[in-house]
Amino acid sequence: MSITKESELIGMKKISEVVGLTLKLMREYAKVGMSTKELDEYGGEILKSFGAKSAPYVTYGFPGYTCISVNEEAAHGIPSDKKILKEGDLINIDVSAELNGFWSDNGGSFVLGKDIYNHQPLVDASKNILKKAINNIKGGVKIADIGYLIETEAKKAGFKVIKNLAGHGVGRSLHEEPENILNYRVKTNRERFRKNTTVAIETFISTNSTIAVELQDGWTLVGNKGGYITQHEQTILVTGKTPIVLTKSNEIWV
User: For the CA atoms of 125, 24, 198, 156, what is the dihedral angle to 10 degrees?
Assistant: First the structure.
């Protein structure tokens, strides 16, 4: 959305702080032996305490307050009391919500407990590439150029990108224009970031796969060639200089 008045910026800052804090607290709450359903319900209670509504639930009827993807799952993992968290699991939590007509979105991958499977380099690549991408965004920058930066940095780190998942505009709904802020360059895309707009920028960095495919449950995404995928996401306000990270309360980069 375009921010045209102070009240809109205040609204976006508030919901962004809520989803960021929810992600941070869920990450800290996750423990070995806990089900993803229990973790999700904890997140749901935090959102409710602020009067916020889960965006995937409201928008798509998703069976959970948040998306929790474990190990080979890339995104949109359904919280389940049968899915128990274990030491060394690669976990992704994606929290998006609505409050007072404003929507914000953020997510992050992390290793639970000891990194016994060496997932941390993939997590760090995703996190660091997102930071570099965001720091290069300002009004007038081509969306395709940021995609090129993400893919180039992933290759440098020895990884690939998922080409059919993307960042997006956010604000008055969960997904708005621009709809395809991809992790690689599409040369025909001449669209540019516009000053004073709010967008969700996300990295999808992978070990083996380049395409995410849906499982039979109709939600969960995995890589087309297996392996692991990490995602980090921040909602930002595009400016004429370095963007303002609205979801910084998630402390992804601390």
Answer: 0
pLDDT, tens digit, 9 for 90 and up, residues 177-228: 999 999 999 999 999 999 999 999 999 999 999 999 999 999 999 999 999 9
Model-wide pTM > 0.90: yes
Distances (CA, A) of 127 to 38, 43, 191, 242: 26, 22, 25, 17
Backbone φ, ψ for residue 196 (5° rounding): 65, 25
